[in-house]
């Protein structure tokens, strides 16, 4: 193994995260040595994680929604298409699938069957949802099949929840009752699923940080993660990243984190919140490891390239038209993956800010820069959800 000062085992886990077995502001690639080394050798690898939706529809109109920037032609994601995709994913070696992309997958009639079937194929399954139309009677079926289950909530009070998420105040109460039921079923049945909340934080949501953190503790969920808001390369959503540096906002987040105890973790994604929306790398190495797919069935390297305007250069195929295995094996798939690592692409100007693959990109970029070809055996116990990198 070549010598380097790079800490190859580092996942940016804080001590609090280690206590809870979680990585919320880092990556888990160090625990996938064989696949990383295969990629470093130039081999064609299957994604470890796929982030996808089953539809582009959504019942909410969140003020910060990136989905409005991802419009592309929608094809029919019927059960035959979804089942074929899950069969292909299992066959080629995908380890984890999270339903959390450019649509609310609860709007698909196939979401419950997809979770159960994916698990039966040996894939770790996860789901992020606003939870408003989730059927409580289905929880007993899906909870034992999920590695983690996350509710997207950016407010802890009904009125502000309604304003931020573009929904009724009653939806807040419905979601709270659903979360209570999830926690109850998990405890009564000793399900291993991790139940969490995620707050997409804009600086103007500061008043909701503590109400939401307290609500999460009262509900008995495992964690609350507070994250930045992504924007596209044209700043279409108008996110003002300099406002994240305001002392009052930082102190409010730290107050929320102080609610952490042995059963509940509150964690901010500080590395992104305080990044100013900037990247240190220009090439994008992450998508072969963590691929994103649109609720339209579109396969593209990442969610920031879903929009129809990127079709000619970056769209690869659609699982409603061709099997995922064929798409993954195609020349087009690897042409696009090679393009985003070439000098003809610059993630600092050609992409939106702070994407899903950001931490993975940093790590892989460091490996490439250091000339690493072989990784050491990872020391220590693997974190939870290791297949969601």
Overall description:
The chain has 389 residues and is an alpha/beta fold. It is built from 15 helices and ten strands. It has helices at 15-20, 33-40, 79-92, 111-120, 139-142, 158-165, 169-189, 209-219, 247-257, 270-273, 311-314, 324-329, 331-339, 347-350, 358-370; strands spanning 49-52, 96-99, 124-129, 146-152, 194-200, 223-227, 265-268, 290-293, 298-300, 317-318. It has a ten-stranded mixed beta sheet with strand order 7-6-5-4-3-2-1-8-9-10. Helix 6 crosses helix 7 and helix 8 packs parallel to helix 9 (247-257). The model is unreliable at 1-5 (pLDDT under 50).
Protein traits:
single chain; 389 residues; alpha/beta
Briefly summarize what is shown.
With 389 residues, the chain is α/β, with parallel strands linked by helices.
Stretches with pLDDT under 50, minimum 5 residues: 1-5
- Which sequence of SSEs, written as H and E, runs from N to C? HHEHEHEHEHHEHEHEHEEHEHHHH
- State which percent range the strand residues make up: 5-15%
Q: How many beta strands in the DSSP annotation?
A: 10
What is the radius of gyration computed over CA atoms, rounded to a whole number of angstroms?
20 Å
What helical percentage do the residues reach? 25-40%
Main beta sheet: strand number and arrangement? Answer: 10 strands, mixed
The separation of the N and C termini measures: 24 Å
Task: Walk across the major sheet and give the strand order.
Answer: 7-6-5-4-3-2-1-8-9-10
Structural class: alpha/beta
What is the overall pLDDT average? 92
- Count every helix, treating DSSP H or I runs of 4 or more residues as helices: 15
Say what oligomer this is: single chain
Question: What's the shape?
Answer: globular
